[in-house]
Design brief:
The structure is a homodimer of 474-residue chains. Chain A has 474 residues and is α+β, with helices and mostly antiparallel strands. Chain A is built from 17 helices and 20 strands. Chains A and B meet through β9, α8, β11, α9 and α11 of A and β9, α8, β11, α9 and α11 of B.
Chain lengths: 474, 474
Amino acid sequence: MTTLSAVDQLSGRAAPERKEALFASFSARFGERFSRSEALRAQHANTLTWLKVQAPDAVLFAETTEEVSEAVSACAGARVPVIPFGVGSSLEGQLNAPLGGLSLDLSRMKEIIAVHDGDLDCVVQAGVTRKQLNEHIRDTGLFFPVDPGADASLGGMAATRASGTNAVRYGTMREAVLGLTAVLADGRVIKTGGRARKSAAGYDLTRLLVGSEGTLGVITELTLKLFGIPETILAGVSTFETLEGACNATIAALQQGLPLARIELLDEVQVRACNAYSKLTLPEKPTLFLEFHGSEASTREQVEIFSEIAQGEGGSAVDLAARAEGRNWLWQARHDAYWATKGLREQTDIIVTDVCVPISALAACVSETKQDIQELNLLAPIVGHVGDGNFHVMPLIDSQSTDEQARAREFLDRLVERALRYEGTCTGEHGVGQGKISYLVAEHGEAVDVMIATKKALDPLNILNPGKLFAEVR
Amino acid sequence: MTTLSAVDQLSGRAAPERKEALFASFSARFGERFSRSEALRAQHANTLTWLKVQAPDAVLFAETTEEVSEAVSACAGARVPVIPFGVGSSLEGQLNAPLGGLSLDLSRMKEIIAVHDGDLDCVVQAGVTRKQLNEHIRDTGLFFPVDPGADASLGGMAATRASGTNAVRYGTMREAVLGLTAVLADGRVIKTGGRARKSAAGYDLTRLLVGSEGTLGVITELTLKLFGIPETILAGVSTFETLEGACNATIAALQQGLPLARIELLDEVQVRACNAYSKLTLPEKPTLFLEFHGSEASTREQVEIFSEIAQGEGGSAVDLAARAEGRNWLWQARHDAYWATKGLREQTDIIVTDVCVPISALAACVSETKQDIQELNLLAPIVGHVGDGNFHVMPLIDSQSTDEQARAREFLDRLVERALRYEGTCTGEHGVGQGKISYLVAEHGEAVDVMIATKKALDPLNILNPGKLFAEVR
């Protein structure tokens, strides 16, 4: 196996004087859009994990692909790392700057360049957020389905291969991206993919960049698939006596080819948290939040079929939320799961982690995980994109308690070990970042060497987001 | 731009005596499974294109991943090219051996290793064909949807990123492959992806290998998505006065979110050919072959909705084929389009080519193409996976007529130029092989450098299928 220390060309990186000269030139060139203020730097380091904050040396707000190219090229010349930044909602330390460097903030690249409603696609700059896009296109009758909860930037979502509640029906960023404009490690600009729905023309560089977490290129523009807003949307809740029942109902529905748009599992701990936070009165039992898309007739039929399946697994018929408003509280509550969890205990940190397993293994994997939470005496609600076999666990930890922290780490190790034992993956949608580097090797073995070889081929100086995905010798 | 001659490390390749020693060792090791017979060699070179046949030096029938690894490793040691072979149905010279070498035939790797009906996935060896798989799993109520016409091997389909008639609903091999086992250029075996429906763990090596046409690794096993056989399948025909009408009806249906399973366009020349070959009596007009999947009620609803749309575009209501048998003649006729075309003129060669454009450009692109066919005085039917914007043109050429050949080449150049002008791609599903090397550069520009850099990183000796995708200096 290639030693991971292979990616260490930057160990003797940026002499301080070269970095100073670079930053002086950026200051002259970009004015107030370049900053070394401590507050801004801290804000640009990762904040949504328990990982140590490692702030960049400076922040640059880029506004065009050309500026990104210019900045990356200059950083490469001075051997200064570049950490692309969207809105800062990543969860595994993707935005930390362990080797210092420049946080390249793309949040001002908010132009929606084109909407092709005839082709169900659009072209956007990387800083456009999913909500901004959906508001912009509402009148066309189209929508962009990928929904990771946070109002993330589309560039960031592509970089981490985000997904979320709609993935079971509409796919993840892996499927949603038709093409990209990206700035390579030496400043070159390439376009990958295109606007055709499919292509067999050469290597799939689009999907090589999607999920590369800023380590192979800086995504500056995206061509994205859109979908027609369904004629009818029905949402509702089904409550189960057991987690197994909820999982089995999901499997049965998918096997029958029921085109579920959303199917989210909340365990009883998470339901309790949501009841308290979102002022709901749901029974504190394993619960599925569901959404059905289609024509009036077909959604009604889907609800009936699912209700029958649920009842066969000891669950309730689907309790339909009233239109519009009703749907909104449901999904707001789901998206507020993080804040609801935070409310379970005062002054607590939360580790947000995710794994994904084949759906047939979901019930067993979730049950064992709950048992482990009990054994380790942790408080850790579970929510899951159960149609994909993807679930999140959110252990609460007291940052003052080294003991609880140790138990939480033990829990994470065992969670990933368990997911891999069930032929799953160490992360379904949060990515590797810094938090899951060792698990990537556990999961992919020698294939990680191929990833590193690719990284070295495209970024020989290791300028782009170093210290992420792969372990690195300093 | 990196010169494409960068991929030329094999120019001083295999000294004849090293190749002889290698082949002697293969003969001793593999017995009758290794052959240098002329007939077998010719059979393993590309045959379904107008490209010159370039036979390999020898053929080896491998039966396990370990054997593939052993053979590739030995070939790398002796600097002998390796050309992976499935059933030989590729269309752009992917199987030719311009630099000689070993055709590595995987057609005996026909084991269906596992079917996980609860997870809607399966694991197969690369030589399993799509029909073999579908026969094997029929009793599970599941099916594998990707259908390029030929009964291709699944390994070959992954390697060329194949798609076909079902792609509009079920996706292409890009979406169908969850994970791969592949042998790298030095004989190492890696596993990519896995059985989870989604993953954010590291670079997407699965999709890097899918569509790499055997130039980055030899695919030996695949984990594939399966789908539930729909409760009801309805198929039918809708006839239009104009090509535009047929294209516009397709666009309108997709925009409404109608979940069409198949929607195939045949121009009047192709309908004439199919009528003659398949003994049909379809009106010789632009025609859509359609298929609808779902529940009894939802398929009926789809047919009604599509009929209304079609009539609004000057087309006929969907004329439903009777169940089962009816469907079969329809799709058999579609799949026999190649042979039907061959029947249009005696003693003719056919160039089978494809491009793909955004669907809004389809009507214009197809119309201009038909005009060009007329201007160049060619006979060339058009069939299309119109839901994807992908269409095929099949110019008939007299191999004795250098004039007709020149006009055909001119036609191909203009066809791709036209597709790119409409923001499309030079190939939707046939791949680049030898036939579209120059078009790949026209389409992707500097991104081709990134492909070449990746190729060099993973196959520094250029052992794997050299002379494909990228131009090469000998």
